[in-house]
Amino acid sequence: TCAEPVLQSFLQGVNGTIFAYGQTSAGKTFTMIGDPTFNFRTRGIAPRVVSNLFRSIQQMPGVACTVRVSYLEIYNDVLYDLLGDPEAPRPQMLEGPSGSVEMKNIAMPVVNTEQ
To answer: Which residues bind ATP (predicted)?
Structure first.
């Protein structure tokens, strides 16, 4: 898939991002998440990448990994943390000292399985 190079780079220590961009009702959520009935065959990009990530980790004996996940939406130039507390401060996207993108006020829970 289009996300495979991002996953392979991530497994080598490079940060990765996958964007779905388009007008309202263009199918971004379906592309990223898939069928809302969680039909395995119609999974979106995100569940497929997560599945491949954990499969890849299992094939790396002796390597300790901590996997954290964040899930953000940008709508009308406003960031929304889809995993965070709705009452928490609004997420912020900042430029770091070296020109990197840094996120503030986002939930990043540790996950141990693809579920």
So the answer is: 22-29
